């Protein structure tokens, strides 16, 4: 099997390494020059020399749509995994997207899988999700002010960077029906993008959900609290713990590659657990709705 990874930043390097560990022959498209026969400066050269079974689009968000259009123009019909979020803004690209998925790998975390089990036959009343991490500590060997996260124009900002929450919440609890959002740059971080987002919304099933995302938290935290008529559930991603009505369940620790490996396996095996192209579009719609709500300071309705 041959795979092509488009974009060779930190996430592209991770995808390439994991695919090689799976025994897949990997080539890379990167704007940087690498003295290697498997590296290409553009897609045209990559397609001239090889045919591919699997392509991962892992360049900056602002270039996702352009890369996908190039694949369509080259009549590529194999599996595609596009890093999250799917696009910077909503795009109209006509192609058969049945084999195209979005890299919301948090779906494959054992805590999310356990939460699904705990929620069987439960009526969910409310959900509160939180994720915060201090941006300068994300990439210790890099200048955060020069990262794509710091640049709104390149697709950065906490709303898109940490959109995993938007995906898994909609996957678990249903599409949003109405929302109101606050999106701001509130800290002294030297960035052009937003560092704080709060979204409150109702789902089609009338569940109340609140989400807070930020680049500010020096105590890295990621958790979700779910209230049902019989249970209070909290999953703590940092400590790998589920708390159900005060009873703690410690799950077996996983390494940082685990969810990425499971995601690649799922894409290639046709698993329904992957975030589909249509679901990725739903996340982009929610992002745009949140931006509209914050700008206009009003509720926004879906559809």
Question: How would you describe this structure to a colleague?
Answer:
Residues 2-94 form the Gfo/Idh/MocA-like oxidoreductase N-terminal domain. This is Gfo/Idh/MocA family oxidoreductase. The chain has 303 residues and is an alpha/beta fold. The chain folds into two domains: 2-103, Rossmann fold; 106-245 and 276-301, 2-Layer Sandwich (Dihydrodipicolinate Reductase, domain 2). Helix content is 28%, strand content 27%. It is built from eight helices and 16 strands. It has helices at 10-21, 43-49, 64-73, 110-118, 158-161, 164-173, 258-269, 277-296, and strands at residues 2-6, 25-29, 39-40, 54-57, 79-83, 100-103, 124-132, 176-184, 196-203, 208-214, 221-228, 232-236, 241-244, 247-250, 275-276, 300-301. It has a nine-stranded mixed sheet. The chain has a seven-stranded mixed sheet with strand order 3-2-1-4-5-6-15, sandwiched between helices. α6 (164-173) crosses α8. The longest helix has 20 residues, at 277-296. The protein is globular and about 60 Å long. It starts with a strand and ends with a strand. The model has no long low-confidence stretch (mean pLDDT 95).
Entry keywords:
Rossmann fold, 2 domains, 8 helices, globular, 303 residues, Dihydrodipicolinate Reductase, domain 2
**Count of beta strands:** 16
**What average pLDDT do the residues reach?**
95
The arrangement of helices and strands along the chain is EHEEHEHEEHEHHEEEEEEEHEHE
Number of helices: 8
Helical amount = 25-40%
Structural class: alpha/beta
Shape, per Cα inertia axes: globular
From the alpha-carbon coordinates, what is the Rg to the nearest angstrom? 19 Å
């Amino acid at each position: 099997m041959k795979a092509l990874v488009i974009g060779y930043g930190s996430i592209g390097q991770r995808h390439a390494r994991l695919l090689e560990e799976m025994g897949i022959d990997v080539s890379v498209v990167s704007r940087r020059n690498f003295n290697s026969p498997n590296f290409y400066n553009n897609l045209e050269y990559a397609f001239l020399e090889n045919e591919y079974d699997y392509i991962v689009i892992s360049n900056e968000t602002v270039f996702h749509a352009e890369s996908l259009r190039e694949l369509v123009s080259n009549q590529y019909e194999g599996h595609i995994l596009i890093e999250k979020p799917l696009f910077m803004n909503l795009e109209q690209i006509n192609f058969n997207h049945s084999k195209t998925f979005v890299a919301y790998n948090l779906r494959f975390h054992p805590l999310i899988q356990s939460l699904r089990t705990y929620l069987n036959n439960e009526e969910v009343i409310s959900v509160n999700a939180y994720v915060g991490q201090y941006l300068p500590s994300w990439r210790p060997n890099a200048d955060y002010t020069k990262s794509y996260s710091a640049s709104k124009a390149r697709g950065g900002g906490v709303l898109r960077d940490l959109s995993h929450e938007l995906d898994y919440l909609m996957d678990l609890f249903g599409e949003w029906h109405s929302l109101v959002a606050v999106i701001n740059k509130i800290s002294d971080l030297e960035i052009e993008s937003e560092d704080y987002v709060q979204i409150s919304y109702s789902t089609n099933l009338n569940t109340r959900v609140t989400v807070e995302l930020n680049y500010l938290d020096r105590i890295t935290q990621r958790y979700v609290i779910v209230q049902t008529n019989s249970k209070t559930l909290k999953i703590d991603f940092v400590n790998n713990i589920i708390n159900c009505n005060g009873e703690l369940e410690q799950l077996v620790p996983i390494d940082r590659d685990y969810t990425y490996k499971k995601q690649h396996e799922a894409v290639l095996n046709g698993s329904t657990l992957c975030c589909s192209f249509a679901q990725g579009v739903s996340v982009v719609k929610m992002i745009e709705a949140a931006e509209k709500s914050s700008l206009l300071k009003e509720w926004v309705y879906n559809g």
